[in-house]
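Researcher: Go.
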Amino acid sequence: KKKRFALLLALVMVLTGVLAGCGSGGDGESGESGDSTIKIGLVQLVGIRESIISQLEEDGYTDGVNVTIDYQNAQNEQANLKTICQNFVADESDIIIAISTPAAQAAYGETKDIPIIFSAVTDPVAAGLVEDFDAPGGNITGTSDLVSADRIMELARQITPDIKTIGAL
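Model: Structure:
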């Protein structure tokens, strides 16, 4: 059940452009009590949690009903991230969703067993989260917010072939 949920979460997040997911093995139950509620630890430095929770609800996963979301905001204090992630591990979260590079690094530093799904990470390879973005391996995966200037220019030329001037922020 955990693996199916993680795969569904991955699909949901890829389709919404927010996150991608990873699966974990398991016996089909959450926790030692056999409770079928899935525990999700969600940590952010700053973030987009509303989009994640909204998409989960659209797909039938409602906090307090069939998932328990332990939302923790580090209040833009990186020092809080380690403690939050340590608590997720101690609480035996089934999945950790990390929003931002520092949040993902903190989660990855605390566990190699619990699946971690990251978003808002510009370069997961340079951040030491994955060795190869196309095949992340291990217990971590997600999406990058890296924007390719070459692809943007290619699209701009397709949309407006006579383009003369481009402004960029």
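Model: Residues 14-33 have pLDDT under 50 and may be disordered.
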